[in-house]
Structure formats: C-alpha cells, structure tokens
Description:
By secondary structure, chain A is of the alpha+beta class. Chain A has helices spanning 2-9, 14-24, 35-46, 69-98, and strands at 12-13, 49-55, 61-67.
Amino acid sequence: MILKTLDAMGPLHGYGIARRIEQLSEEVLKLNEGTVYASLLRLTQNGWISSDWGTSENNRRAKFYSITKSGRKQLVQETESWERIAGVIGRVLQLSTQK
Amino acid sequence: MLRSHLRTFASRLHSLLRRRTLETEFDSEVEAHIALLADRFQRQGMTPQEAHYAAQRQFGGITQMKEELRDRRGFPFIETLLQDTRYIFRQLRKSPVFTASAVLTLALGIGANTAIFSLVDQLILRLLPIRDPQQVVELVGKGNYYGGNSGYNVLSYPMYEDIRDQNRVFSRMMCRRSENFTIGISGQTQVVRGELVSGNYFGMLGIRALLGRVFTANDDLRAGEGSVVVLSHAYWATKFGGSRNILGKTIRVNNYPMTIVGVSQPGFDGMEPGLPGEIFVPVTMSLRLFSRQYLSHLYDRRKRSVNVYGRLKSGVTEVEAKAALQPLFHQILNREVREPAFRHASTYDKQQFLRMWLDVIPGSQGNTTLRRQFEKPLWILMGIVGLVLLIACTNLAGLLIARSATRQREIAVRLALGSSRFRMVQQLVTESLLLSVGGGIVGIGIAVLLVKGIFSFLPANIGGYDLSSAVDWRLITFSFLLSLFTGLAFGLLPALQSVRPNIAETLKDQSTSVSGATAQVSFRKLLVAAQVSLSLLLLIGASLFIRSLSKLQSLNPGFQTSNLLQFQLAPASLNYTDAQGRAVFRRIEQRLSEIPGVHAAGTAVVALLSDDDWENGITVAGYSAKPGENMFPYFNAVSPGYFPALRIHVLAGRNFRDSDTVHSAKVAIVSQSFASHYFGSNPAVGQRIGLGTDPGAPTDIEIVGVVNNTKYESLQEQSPREIFVPAAQAYAGNATIYVRTEQNPESAVQSIRQIIHEIDPKLPITNRRTLDQQLNESLVTERMIATLSTGFSILATLLAVIGLYGVMSYTVTRRAREIAIRMALGALKRNVIWLVMREVLLLVGVGIVVAIPLALALAHLVQAELYGLQPTDPFSIACATLLLATVALLAGYIPARRAAAHDPIRVLRYE
C-alpha cells in the first residue's frame, strides 16, 4: 500500500503517506499513524524505497520517501500475485453463489 | 531472496554503527509528523493544546514505536552484547583481585595448552610446504626383506625405477634420502645436511627455483654424471649472503667438484620437517660422493636406501593405489628372487621375501624421525595440559559461583523486574567469555615463554631442529578457540545455577535464604572433589615419569660415561682411499693417546646410544637356527683402543691388537649375552661364526674374546647380543673417536683440534660432546615428560588446593554463627576443628577414591613411555596420594583453625 502510494504520488514524507492511506481506505483502516514508520523501515531495509531529507509544507525538516527501481519491480510482482489470489477467491465466491 | 537478506543485513549493520544519529533523526521525523497533524487539527478548529494532544493520540505511543524500530533496525543481540561488555568491564574493574586471579588461572591453563600445541603442530600436524601435499604418499615395503637397509621406510633404487615406470596410479614419483655432506668452499670445510634426490624431485613436489633452475629428469639419467647442486633458500641466504653471483660456481661436495645451478624457493627445506636440508644433490651422484657406503650400491636391489614418494592421480585414493600396486610389486619380487643374489638364500627366507607387501602411507608430512620420537610423548603432554586446563576451569567455575552468590540479590531483583532468564545467562556467560579471552591473550605470552623454556632443555642436537617459538595465526586460532571453549565450559554451569534462585525468598532477608546457598556450596564442593581427583591423576603420572627417569639414569650402560669425550671424523668424505683412511685413523688414535691427561683413545664405526645401528645376519658354527629366529646381532667395528677408552672389560680371551689387519685372519669379540645365548656354558673363545644367514655361509671368523654387556642403541633396551670386529677389517670411511681423559674432557679439546689439524686441516670434526651429554640427550624425551608433567601437576595441585581452601573458608564464614553457638554451648576447639576437617577429609577422600581407579584405567596410555616399572606401580601411586592428601589437608586445616579461633561472643553479637 505504501509502495503503491509512493509510486502514484512521488516522494512523500511519513505524514503525507498517513494522510493518503487515510484517504484511500476511507477510514476503514484506522491505525495508529506511528505504525507507518515500522513499515517504512522494513521497506527501506529491503531496498524498495529510499529516503532523503527535505522541507515539509510547514517548513520543517522532514524525511521524504520515494520508491526505488527494485521497489517498482516488487510492486508489480505483489500486484500480480494479489490479483491472482483475488481472482481465485472471486471465482470461488462466484461458484458458491451459483449453487 | 538472498540479495534482499544481504541488503537487510547491510542496512542493519549500518544502523548498528550509526545508532545515535538514526535515533535523533527519527525523533525529528516524528516531531514533524505530529506537528503537521496538529496543524491539521487546528485548521479543523481545535485549540493548539487540544490539537497537539489529538495528534499525539492519533500517532500512537512514541516510546513503543521507538523500541520496536530499535529492535528492527540493528542487531539487538549484538547491542546487548556490547552493553553487557561495557557493564562487565565496569564490574571487573571494581574487583581487580578476582579479575586478575581469574585471568591468570586461565592464562596458565591456556598458555600451557598453547605451548604444547605449538610443538604438536610443528612436529606432528604441519604439512610440508609443497603443492597439494594431501596427494603425496610414501611407499613402504612391509615384511621380511632379503638384503640390507640404510634408513627408515626405504626401498631399493631399482625398485623405485620399476614402480615409477610401470605404475598406473601416480601422476609423478620421486625418491630421496637424507645425507650429511662435507662442503669445501674456498679452502674451508664444513658438514651440512642435505638430500640426495631424484631428478624429478622438485617437479613432483611442485617446488620452483628462486634463482637459476632446480633439477629436471635429465639430471639423474646417467650414474655418476650430473655434478650439479641446488641450494636451499635458507642455506643460500645464510652462507652465501643471498648473492646472485653463485650460479655456475663450483663447490667441493665430499671433495668432488659440483656446480651450483640454482636456489630453491623460500620456505622449502626438504622432506624432513625439523631437519632442514641445505643442499640437494642428484641421487645418481652418490656413486661418486660416497664410495664406501651403501650408496655406492645404489643399483643393487639387495640394498634399500631411498624413500619413495608418489603423487596420486586425481581421483585415486590411498586404498585404491595400494590395491593397484600389489600385483606390480609382486611381479618385481618374483623377478628379484630368481636373481643370482638369492643363490644361497634358504627356502624360508625366499618364502618370507615373496610374502612382502607394499604399504601406502600419507607422505604430506615427509619423513619425520623427529615425529616418531616425539609423537607419543607430545600427545601425553597434551593430555596432561588438557587436564590442567580442566582444573583451571573448575577453579574458575568455583570462583564464579562464589561471586554470583554475592550477587544473588541483584540477580533476583532483575528477574523480578522481568528480565528473562536467558538474558541473565547471556550476560553471565559473556562475562566468563570475556575472562577467558583475556586469559587466552595472556596465555599466548605464557606459551611463548614456555616453549622457549622447553627448547632450553632440549639438547644441542635437537636445537639444530628447526623449531620455533614464534606465534603464528594457527596458534592464535587455537588459543582463541580454546578460550571460547573454556569460557563456555566454566561459565555456563555457574550461570545456569545462579539464575535458579527462588526470587521471593532471596528478596526477603538474605539471612533466611540459606537453602539456595546450600545448593551452591554443595556444587562447589563437587567441583573441588573433581579437582582433587584430576590433580591426583596428574601427580600419579608425574611420579611415574620421575621414577622411570631415575631408573634410566641409574642404569649401568656397561661402560663408564664420565670423563669420556666423543667426536666424529669422516675421511671418506674427502675421497681418502680405504688404505689412507685406515692409516689416518691409526695415526690419530696413536697421537691422541699421547696427549698428557688422556688415558686411552679408540674408534668405533657405530656411535653409542645415538639411535644408530648396524645389524648383520650371521651363521654360528655348530648352532642351527630355527626358521625365523633372529640371527641379526648388533655389530660394531672398533680399534684396539676402544675397550680401554670406554672401560669395557675383556672377560675372556684377548682384546684386538694392531696385528689384526685386513691381511691377517678374521677375528671377532662378542658380548657376554652373545656368548651365553649361542654357547651356553661352553667357552666362546675359539668358536667360529660367519656373515650371512644363508645355509652354507662360510664360518671364517674366529671369536678371540668376550667383553661385558653394553647398551648399544639406547639405554632403554635390554643389553643386546653384540659382535665387535677389528676396525682394520671393516673400514667404513668414517668413525666416532672416544677419548678417555683424567679430568674434565673439555680440557683436552684444544689439543685434539690441533692434532687433527696437523694430520689434515680439511678434516672437519663433527658431533663433539661428552658421553655424559650424549647420555642425557638420549634421555631427552624422558626428561621432557618428567619435567613438564611434574611442573604441570604441581600447578594443578596448587589450583586444586586453592579451590579447596576457598570453599572451606566460605563454608566456615557461613557457619560462623552455628560454630559460635556450638562453642558457647561448650564445644572444644578440637571439636570445631574436627567439624570442619571432617568435610575436608570427605572431599579429599572422594577425590582419591575416584582418581585411583581412573589412574589404573588410564595406565595403558603411558605404558610405552615408562622404563622398568608398571604404570600401576603402587609406590608411585602411594607417593602421589600421600603428597596430595597432605597438601589438601593442610589447606583445609587453615580455615578450620580460624573457625576454632573465633571468639563466640563477638560472633554472636555481630550477628
């Protein structure tokens, strides 16, 4: 989800990512925003995103995260596998409704 | 997958190093986030205060977040390790006495192990610096050979050629032999160690030339041609100062001009580790260089004189090679047995000869005389130092338990606050590991000193062995691994012990929690009993070795060793003819005995007690040998001055005379043991013997005298059957000269040198030493084991006694109140002493009872190293036990006395 956000919106800081997720999930996923940072660390360690210091809207120093090349690759892979699973589940569900 | 793991790892490593920066960065990141959130809430209409709180709420717990990230970011394990290390360093600094004694105890244990390992490594484990040493094997003929041998594990040169040309398992083969050479460089002569080698020697080993060239297969094509020599790098560097101009120079090797064609690559000293070869000469040149010896019979199939090595083809194992070689070997034997040399051989000898087989043994370590001599003793010493280390570990385990007892409260508090047991154990083990690594580092220093010490009492001729006390990475690795092992060994048990306390009990008043401490004390007592056992084992070993050595030293070799000097001369190496050589020896003997203060001088071909021997098959007239009976007595060729010089007594018949010459009738003198074995109570003088065991061998030698028994090869052997023949009738080209002096033999050295110089200034004197020195050197392994095992067992006993003292002192302190009450109620001092000593007696008793059966069970391991006593020798065991019991009881008596000396009133009031 974070990867997708970064892919779509370009470099963002943690706050921006939290807002975007809030927006997308239409408040269905209501998490502590701090947990975003745990995910960000994991993604950085995997080399899927990189970070740089920049200045935020209110003129504070903030870390901007952006997706890397291997991150995009990962995103494509994940998307594909998700779609595959979703497709399978969809078909299964359709089967059960047809009955 | 792997890449992403690596990336994560790198990132974590990076975080580990920049932990502080990353934390502040995260702080500011969080701060920015919350500020932005707050701004948003404010825009939605909250007051700044409310907005700030709401923002914090929405963000969630910052501290939890931080901890989670911290765990993810670095390596928590390493971080706690570093943290522990810092903490432990602080702790250890606070108790310097504990730290010092722990490190020192370990350093002694690890140092002793590292020192012995250094010798084991150099003498036993190390492979030759050749290409793929594991592929190199040596060929050894097993069974009853028909003919003569010169050297160990030798085959005949023609046999080598046959196998080289016809086998299918070796990619290359070579042969070699160690020899001493007399080198003449610009008028000066000296004796150097070298090797006679086949032309393909260097190619097979993969040794290149540093300068010029090494030998090729062309250098040994024709016998007696190819007068070329290759120098070892070390010899070239020391004797020729590393000069590049030596190529093409001519030096005289055994007085024969040879051209230096190359210097071999550094680090390679030939095939005898510890006995560096300094020059290399083509084996086919031996016909020119050694006219008088076995080597002049290089092409004789009945004389074995070369070590044969092969390099296995890739994929061929030793076992396969051995199987594949047998048919070829037997084909060669079958051909040999039909040769004229077997004309007189008995059917039995022929059968035995054909039953021989070819063994294939690893050759990666070369031909090691030294290893054969020291292997067993070194493993025994390794076992001894292993036990010492075990005792040191036990001691430290005891110390750590005592220490953790004082830390019970701290540990209980930490456990109560939620620290995991694993975490506590991790910390305690880290502590013991730190101590042991410290001990390891100091131990390396101790090892160097110890190795130097061991070298210092190795005799001069062993000093010539190329052993070093230098520290290399192998030693450091060994020491480090040993430290880790010890750290775990002595650290883990106490650590597990100390995290077991009943938290509630301990956290309540300490004085009521005696129960937990009792378990620890009994564990410590167990350790002490174990120490007592182990050190008793070592003491028993030491006393066995000492007794064995003293028995050896008090042995009568059959001749008087004091005021006796020996040295060697080899006129043959200067191309003297036999007649010239004989004449020179006669003149030398004559001149030497005229020196004032010299009683007698004589020569012998085989030097006494130097592991040198000359055996020959014989036939005794009127005596029919059973098939397979050993008819190979020792021989020596001696001059008329020999028996008087050594003070060997002629018991019957006569000594040799100057009139016994090449041209006169052949005569012999035999030892008493020879006479009684072959002639019983009949007089030996007048009997006849002959050389060779073949049926019908002529018995043309008359026995003219009988002398008392003497030791021949070594002191340990039983007095062997021996035959002496006149030096004049068995000239060998070299001899050892014995000079009996009135006073200190060293005083005659100057005159001896002068006389030899007058006779031939080019004749080098070698191996000069007194017989007492020679005797001591022949006992070098025995002395080494006895000295070191005594030293180590004393060390071990000391450690054990300290352990005993420690645990008893602790017990006495802990029971002070109980003892005071007893005394207040009327117990006498001796009752109190008995109270304590009873425990000491129990500990020591258990130790002894365990140790003695153990000693008896391990006895066979040292049997081979003992002379004249059984490893279960009751006297040695009793001495060791008595010594240990005395020292241990004394150590226990001190705290017992102290306990009894307490003033009960004061103790009770203090409590």
